Amino acid sequence: MSTSPLALFNGSFLGRRPTGIGVVARDLVAALDPAEVPLLDPLGSGRAGGIPIPATLGPEHGRAGHLRRLLWTQNQLPRLLRASGAPLLLSPLPEAPLLRGVRSVVLAHDLLPLRYPQLTPLLAYHLAYVPLVLHRAVRVLCNSEATAREVHGRLGVPARRLVPIRLGFDPGLLRPLGLERDPFFLVLGRHDPHKNLSRLLRAFASLPDPERQLRLKLVGPQDPRYTPRLQALAAELGIAERCDWIAWVSDQERLELLNRCRALVLVSLWEGFGLPALEGLACGTPVIAARAGALPEVVGDAGLLVDPRKPSEIAAALQALDRDGGLAGRLAEAGPQRAAQFRWQRTAEAVRTLLLECA
User: Fold this and answer.
1) DSSP 8-state secondary structure symbol assigned to residue 164
2) pLDDT of residue 1
3) How do beta strands 162-164 and 184-188 pair?
4) Could you say which of 91, 217, 338, 353 has the lowest number of CB atoms within 10 Å?
């Protein structure tokens, strides 16, 4: 083992209630050797070798936290890196110092803000800062082949510097429990337009359900720009009383929901990876996923793939998994076998090899 670290892990995005990138950051650093990759730790997690950083930089602190994180990244992070003796910064998202000679390895999740641009204060961040970080990184880890193709094709980052890796899941948090399935479908994720929830609501409303027993549980942070519109659409479609909007759940609640639902539904117009789909597979939950972005890479033939622009296809898949116990059983068996190909330990080994090459 080397006497100095291979890299510092940029934990500035970590928070108490992680979703998406935060979950990836938490689980990836847990799989890495803390002596080789110390954590810049905002949470006081007690991880060996952790280096304390401010606790107000994560996404739960809103735009103010985002701005503080960017300023901290440019002004304070280089000093911490130099003091550690680590030759590299490992960042679980495309954020790194630009002007201080820092050599970085960053993880690209998707280019959704460029694919579906929104006029927000963060637009310049996505249009200018993120591409600069990706171009200046020593290597860009990509969470899928689809993301690698997009980073190369849309931003022109040389293919030789793009390294697709597979993400993983924590078998301690996500596993089959053998519970009886209840009559509801589960959605995990934000309410952004690319998540395609309006078409899902229309598909759900079209299901023949004379006793109105089926429910749709939508777990994800509410957004004042989008959630009210979706709730209004549910009311217009006559399904408002059968839709549950849940802002956040604990790991244990998530595990139980995944083990009780009829199916996990992820019909986004694009996903750079699609972590909820993997979580569903790991729990033996039938998965309905869009034939878009990286979702076919993740799901393979262990779930039902649909055209996300066709509510009729989404509805047919929902109905099949509600009524065909044999199909649901086959997918329940196939899911954990497929998920076994995605393990954080394998990801960590690939990252370690890359850090050794770049150090």
Assistant:
1) E
2) 41
3) unpaired
4) 353
Diameter over CA atoms, the chain: 68
Q: Please compute Rg for the chain using Cα positions.
A: 21
Per-residue pLDDT of 145-197, as tens digits, reads 999 999 999 999 999 999 999 999 999 899 999 999 999 999 999 999 999 99
d(CA 165, CA 28): 12
Which token pair is 163? 């390294």
User: What are the φ/ψ torsions at residue 194 (nearest 5 degrees)?
Assistant: -70, -15
Partner residues linked to 89 by β-bridges: 8, 104
Return mean pLDDT, the chain.
Answer: 95
Compute the average pLDDT of residues 240-251: 96
Helix (H, G, I), strand (E, B) or coil at 335: helix
Task: Quote the CA–CA distance of 297 and 320 in Å, as a whole number.
Answer: 22
Q: Is the pLDDT of residue 2 over 60?
A: no
- On the 0-12 / 13-18 / 19+ scale of CB atoms within 10 A, 107 is buried
Q: What is the three-class DSSP state of 107?
A: strand
Calculate ∠ Cα 56-62-64, nearest 5°.
65
User: Pairing state of beta strands 287-290 and 263-266?
Assistant: parallel
- At 291, is the pLDDT very low, low, confident or very high (cuts 50, 70, 90)? very high
Are residues 73 and 42 in contact, defined by beta-carbon separation less than 8 angstroms?
no
Give the Cα separation of 168 and 209 in Å (integer): 36
- How many CB atoms neighbour CB 237 within 10 A? 16
| Euclidean distance between CA atoms 27 and 273, whole angstroms | 15
- Number of other CB atoms surrounding residue 282 within 10 Å: 24
Give the mean model confidence (pLDDT) for residues 241-257: 96
pTM for this predicted structure: 0.92
Residues in the chain: 359
Tokens representing 251 are 């790991």
Using the structure block, give the residue that is written with the tokens 């460029």.
114
CB 195, CB 189: distance < 8 Å:
yes
Q: Does the pLDDT value for residue 294 go beyond 60?
A: yes
Which helix (H) or strand (E) segment is 347 a member of?
helix 344-358
Task: Name the residue among 351, 358, 338 with its Cα closest to residue 31.
Answer: 351
What integer pLDDT is reported at residue 34 of this predicted model?
97
